[in-house]
Amino acid sequence: MGFMLSSWPGGLRASAALAILVSMPVSGDVHLKSRTARSEPENRVYRAKSRIEGRHHLLVHFESTPGETERAELHKRGMRVVAYIPDTGVIVGLTGDPRLDGLSITGYESLTPADKLSAELFRPTRARAKAASRDYFLVEFHEDVSWEDRRALIIESGLAVRDHADLVGNHMLVSGPLARVQSLADWDEVAYIFPASGDLATGAPLIGCMGAAAPAGEVGQLTQRVGEGWDGAGLGPAELTYTIEKNPSRIPPPYVETVLQNAMIAWSNVAKIRFKKGSNTVATKNINILWGGVQHGDAYPFDGPGRVLAHTFYPSLPNPEPIAGDMHFDESENWNIGDEVDLFSVAVHELGHALGLGHSDVPGAVMYPYYRRTQGLTAEDIGAIRMLYESGTAPAPDPVPVPVPSSLALAVSAPTAGAQVMTPTVETRGAVTGASGAVTVRWTSDKGTSGLAQVVTGQGGSLTWNAGPIPLSIGANQIRVEATDALHNTKIAILDVSRLQPQTEPPPPPPPAPAPIPLRLSVSTPGDGSTSSVNSIRVTGVTQGGSGLPTIRWISDRGFSGTARTLSPSGDTRQWEIQPLALMPGVNQITIQATDDESSSASILLRVSYQPPAAPTPPSTPRPTGDTIAPRVSITSPNTTYLVTRNSAVTLRGLATDNDIVEAVRWECNCGLSGQATGTQSWVIANLALPVGPNQIRVYARDRAGNEGVAMITIHRYVD
C-alpha cells in the first residue's frame, strides 16, 4: 500500500492494490521465474555469503500446499517462513541444519544466484522496456533481514540506496553498475533482483501492488504465476462469467461496465478467455465485482481514501469458490475514466491477478508491481497470460449501451465581462443548455467564498440560474461558475469583476521593519548522549528568532522521521515537542531542523542510546510432563489483523490462556526488533517502534512445558 500524494505520472494517485490468496491444498511443482523446480529436489544446500554466520534460507517442497499448521510447525523447529512459492513451496530462514524429519515434504534446496536474477537485467539496452531505468534496480530481501543489514549490504557492495516513499513489501531501490548489482545475488539475504522503472528512479509517486498473501506466507517477485489458471493444468481455453454486485457512486453504471469490459477484452484478445455477463454473484467460475467501504463482506477491510485502491482473489484453484477471482474496489477513492484514479488502469491489472498472474519484472508492463495509467497490454503481459491459457482471441462480452454524452453549455448574462462596481457584493445569473438530467451550478470566488446557485426550470425545459449576493473585495475579483449534469459533464465560466473605491489620501508609509533575529534551535530534554531503557521517548526544546512560526522536522539514522508539535506558537521563544520518537537498540542519531517562513534554518544533532531491558528470568518451578497443548493468544487492541497508521510507535494489548500456566509472552517484528511483553494472561507491549512500510508482528505465549501459541498483526506505517 502506497501513500496519498500529488498526481503521479499518468494522473493516478499513489496508492496500493493487493492480490489475495486464501489457498486450498493442491499438489504440484514449485514455479520460479528462472525454472520450474522439480517436486523431489536433491536436498542440496548452496552456502551463500551471509552477514550473520550460520544463517541461511532454504526452499522447502511440500507434498501439497502448506498452510498455517505447517508454518507453525516449522517455527517450532527454529525455521521462520519468509515467503510462499506456488504451488507447494515455502522459503524458510534458519541457523544451522534444517530439522525437517516427520514433515510431509518431498525435499529441500537452496536458491542459487541464477534464481535471484531477473532475465530482464541482461537484455541489451536497446531491447529493454522503454520504461526501465538503466542504472536503477529493485532488490527484494527476505523479510527476516533487518533494515540495517539491508542498507549495509547495499552500501558495502559499492551501490547507493535510493529512498522512495511508495516502495512496497521488502523492496529496496538501489543505483549503480549492473556488475555490482549482480554480485548481490551471491548473498543469502537477497531474494530477487529486477529492473526499476524510470518513474521509480525519478522519485515520482506511484501505485504499488502488495502482491499475494497466503496462510503459508507472502508471494514475492520470484514467481510469475499462482496456480494453473481457470482452465487447469496445461494450455486450454477458459469460460468465465462476471457480475457487478455494486457500482461506484461517482461514475454512471453503463460507463463502469464498459470500462470493465474493455479490461476483459484486453486479455481475451490475446488468449482464449471468454467473459460473459452472469446473474449469480456466487456462481462457480464467476468474477464478482463490487465497490465497498471499509467493511464490505470479506476479511480484508479497506482503509478509506488513498493507499489501498483494490484487492483481488486468485483463481480456483488455489482459492476456493465462490470468492475465487472476485475483484473488490474501494468506494471512497476518486474513481474516474481517463483521469485519476483511472478505472481501466487499475481494473486491467487486478484482472491479471484474477486470471492467475503474479507480478512482472518488466517496467511499463501492466503486471509490473508499480503501475501507471495504461492503454493496454504489452508484449510481456501477452507472453505471461499465454503461459496459463491457449493463445488466440475469444469472443468479446456483449456491449453495454452507453448514453450519448450531452452537449452541455453554460452562459453568463450578468454582470458583463470586466464589470466595475462600487457595491460590496454582486449578483450573477445566466442559463444552462444541453444538460443530461439534473444540473448543479456552483460558484467560487478567488477571495475564499463559495456557494450554490439557484437553478430554475422554465417552459420547455429551459434552465436559468442566479447566484448571490457574492462578496467582493476592493480591486479585482475573479468568480468561477461551474455547471455539472447527471452524467458528470462539466462546463466552467470565469467572471472578472472589479470593485472600485473613492480615492483618498494615501496612507503614510509604514515604519521600517526591525532587523530579524536569527533563527535559533535548542533541545531541552533529553540531553545529548543520554541513555534510555524504553524504545520511545519525548523530546522537547525551544526555537527563538526567525520569521513567522518555524516548522520543525526530524529524522533518525534508523529510518524514522516526523514533524514536531509546537506547544506555544506565539512570542519570540516557542516551545516544541516530539512524542513519541521511536528508538532502536544502540546509538540513535536524530537530526532536528527548524525552518522559518523565509527558508532560514537551524539544525541540531541529538544522540540517544537505547538499551533494551534484559528479558525476565522465568521462575524456577517444576515443569509439567506430557503437556502438548499450546497456549491461546489473541491481540485485542488494535482489534484488527491489518492496521495502517502514520504513527512511529504503537501499543499492543491482548490475552493469553492455557490449560496450565502461561509463563511468558514475547514478540518479534520482521523489521528486526523483538522483546518481552509486560504481563502474561493480560499482556501489554508498549510503544513498539515502527519503521516506514509494512511491519509483520508476531506475539508468542509460552507455557511451562515450552509449548508456544502465536497471534499476528500487520501494521503498515506511512509518511505524509
Topology at a glance:
Blueprint: E1 15-20, E2 30-31, E3 36-37, E4 55-62, H1 68-76, E5 80-85, E6 89-95, E7 105-109, H2 113-116, E8 132-141, H3 147-156, E9 160-162, E10 171-175, H4 178-183, E11 190-197, H5 198-201, E12 207-214, E13 217-218, E14 238-246, H6 253-268, E15 273-277, E16 286-292, E17 307-313, E18 327-330, H7 343-354, E19 370-371, H8 379-385, E20 409-414, E21 419-421, E22 425-433, E23 440-445, E24 450-452, E25 454-457, E26 463-471, E27 475-484, E28 490-499, E29 520-525, E30 530-532, E31 536-544, E32 551-556, E33 561-563, E34 565-566, E35 573-582, E36 586-595, E37 601-610, E38 632-637, E39 642-645, E40 649-657, E41 662-669, E42 674-676, E43 682-689, E44 693-703, E45 708-717
Structure description:
With about 725 residues, the chain is mainly beta. Helix content is about 10%, strand content about 40%. It is built from 8 helices and 45 strands. Strands 1, 12, 13, 14, 15, 16, 17, 18 and 19 form a 9-stranded mixed beta sheet that branches. A 5-stranded mixed beta sheet has the order 21-28-27-23-24, with no helix packed on it. It is globular.
Given the C-alpha coordinates, what overall shape results? Answer: globular
Write the CATH architecture name of the largest domain. Answer: 3-Layer(aba) Sandwich
Question: Tally of extended strands?
Answer: 45
Model regions low in confidence, pLDDT < 50 over at least 5 residues: 1-15
Average pLDDT rating: 86
Q: What's a concise summary of this model?
A:
With 720 residues, the protein is mainly beta.
List keywords for this structure.
720 residues, mainly beta, Collagenase (Catalytic Domain), Alpha-Beta Plaits, 6 domains, nine-stranded mixed β-sheet, 45 strands, 9% helix, globular, disordered N terminus
